[in-house]
Design a protein that fits this description.
By secondary structure, the chain is of the alpha/beta class. It contains nine helices and 13 strands. The radius of gyration is 20 Å and the shape is globular.
Length: about 350
């Protein structure tokens, strides 16, 4: 039994960015990241070419500034998704009014194109075969926690050597699946200055899945919990399996189900923990706060957002209220905490 394709990793900005001058594309021209204001870097990691996008304050691309690495959530999605030629927000916490004070960096998923039209994507805007819902084999072979940790560490070490990066001020922030990667990077000595852990579950992915199954059970699906535990039994029986099917393979599920609580409590750098109180991972985040208190950890800042779900939307009549877009507030909170919120001039 395969666990259904998750929606927990969705952090897509639902508000389209206003097209900037020069963004219009000729019908015969394939859009490039530069058309949307990004620098495109290729960083070698072993034999892999890692695709990296950088967004800088206009006119300050070569200025020595702090760096923020944003780690995207789950699902094999392009970084820049176009609808009618216009891009969705790559960084969900930014608005058209946000004035950058740092270099923003995001790393593409392995084997997934950087730019794609939503009409060419499958379910949940994933880059998959529309008939089978299976992502590219290259992606499947690299879609697991250890790979992302080693790859992202290599990219950060490369970036910190660049003259336009203030290596003394490097922040990593991740949402959902990306929060687990951010937690791991925060434990690497001297790699980052601070970390933001957003909408994660410090007790691991499978507990989040079990919580969801319990909710389904309460709604009348009597088999949901047994199926979820049965799935986990299959995973732990062969935790290294990396078949390429819809959803995550065993190695991905097993790795992301290890409790990030351990890494978070080991981190020596400041950590911002942000989560909605309606998120299925809320108990894990509350438990992390209790443990941080018990262990007298003073490097944590906790910010719970009442009535907000996994992607910081509110709910209305029992459904997610997509009209209530709250990411800019969350972004302002962790950017201010990190000292990256622009000051008035």
């Amino acid at each position: 039994m395969k666990v259904r394709m998750r929606i927990l990793g969705l952090f897509l900005g639902l508000v389209l960015l206003k097209a900037a001058p020069g963004m219009a594309q000729a019908a015969t021209t394939r859009p490039q990241p530069a058309d949307f204001g990004f620098r495109h870097l290729v960083v070698m990691f072993g034999r892999d070419s890692v695709q990296v996008l950088v967004q800088s304050p206009p006119g300050r691309e070569q200025a020595r500034l702090p760096l923020l690495l944003w780690v995207q959530g789950s699902l094999p999605r392009p970084l820049i998704m176009l609808e009618a030629g216009r891009p969705f927000g790559v960084f969900p916490f930014l608005t058209k009014q946000t004035k950058l004070s740092c270099h923003l960096v995001v790393i593409g998923k392995p084997g997934i194109p950087l730019v794609a039209d939503v009409r060419d994507l499958g379910a949940s805007q994933s880059f998959v075969d529309k008939a089978t819902q299976i992502p590219p084999l290259y992606y499947c072979q690299r879609n697991y926690l250890d790979y992302y940790l080693r790859r992202n560490e290599a990219v950060l070490r490369f970036l910190k050597k660049q003259p336009w990066v203030d290596a003394r001020s490097v922040t990593v922030a991740g949402h959902s699946e990306g929060s687990t990667i951010a937690a791991g990077l925060a434990t690497v000595p001297g790699l980052v200055s601070r970390a933001a852990y957003l909408s994660g579950n410090p007790l691991g992915r499978m507990l989040t899945n079990v919580v969801e199954a319990r909710q389904d059970e309460a709604a009348g699906d009597s088999a949901a919990v047994a199926q979820m535990f049965g799935y986990w039994r299959e995973v732990v029986a062969d935790p290294a399996r990396m078949d390429c099917t819809p959803g995550d393979h065993n190695r991905a599920t097993f790795g992301f189900s290890a409790a990030p609580l351990v890494a978070l409590l080991q981190a020596k750098v400041p950590v911002f923990v942000g989560y909605g109180t309606l998120d299925r991972g809320v108990v894990g985040n509350d438990y992390l706060q209790l443990q941080a208190m018990e262990q007298h950890k003073n490097n944590f800042t906790f910010r719970a957002y009442p009535g907000r779900e996994h992607n910081f939307f509110s709910t209305k009549d029992g459904r997610v209220n997509y009209d209530d877009y709250f990411w800019p507030k969350v972004g302002e909170d962790f950017l201010r905490w990190a000292g990256l919120w622009p000051t008035a001039r």
